[in-house]
């Protein structure tokens, strides 16, 4: 970080350990400075070991992984894809890359993720209109596992394949099983702000060998077998660099520490801020779930009329503390003004009342205290 930023508290900055440089050093020494090499294979195997996934393809972003994941599920021009409205735009943009249309579904208020009741309503209505959705995207926002049992049951009932966007949720579990293993294809992100990072990067996990093979093929320019370059479908240049995979291997060694620290940060904020009945630090984990607590969030109570999210954000900013409103629902984005949607009031309310607090795993007790004091000055 720049020197004038030395006392700035960021939302979720990179947190490097001791081993990343060893992997990068070895890659350069051995001249594996390319989107092929032993760190890529190693990173993929280690991600499979950690999550329990059968197959992994390392890619240069989570967005690229969503793009190719939807492609191998057969999404194409004219199709519709079900997607939560309450998420980052990168969840939905790849639907558009493929010439398909997102159909937005509201959140439920326990985990803030896609609502199984609204989901069924959306599917029934699309079926009545003669448009069976081609795929469903599930997101685990801020690391909190979605209500998978109910949501996956609806998807199975209508035989709609699931892409699991676990970009924010590496290290979270549902019923003891790692997130990133619940979709026909699942996606991770290693962007600079995520719980572990390769600066930029992503991965696709799947239990099906054919999906992994297709994704690898599409990610490396779709070269048909031939001595020259022969192509029969459109490919992409989406593979992760061997240098960055080296950073990823060093980071992945630390994942359990990082989850532990983020969970401690959530608990600390909860203990020090929850006492005020003007705000809620939350949401709590449903029984059987473990959230990695990627970001701790705060909701202003409905009774709270004096203080707005923007006033609180600006106050934190005046103390050189970065914070950010919760995701603005995608159905409110000008980009998606034409897209169909089912419900929306739940996530609109969360957006109006919610703020993400600094949650980086390198935060000290002094940093946490500075944030809590600044919040208390306003609330
Ligand atoms: C970060 C993120 C992505 C995109 O990942 P990139 O690696 O930045 O492309 C997708 N979905 C969600 C929910 C994210 O938070």
UniProtKB/TrEMBL annotation:
- For the keyword Transferase, the answer is yes
CDD domains attached to this UniProt entry: AHBA_syn (cd00616)
Q: Which InterPro entries match?
A: DegT/StrS_aminotransferase, PyrdxlP-dep_Trfase, PyrdxlP-dep_Trfase_major, PyrdxlP-dep_Trfase_small
Q: Answer yes or no on keyword Heme.
A: no
Q: Which UniProt keywords apply?
A: Aminotransferase, Pyridoxal phosphate, Transferase
Tell me the GO molecular function terms.
transaminase activity
Short name of one Pfam family for this protein? Answer: DegT_DnrJ_EryC1
The UniProt entry's sequence similarity note says: Belongs to the DegT/DnrJ/EryC1 family.
This chain belongs to which protein, by name?
A: Pyridoxal phosphate-dependent aminotransferase
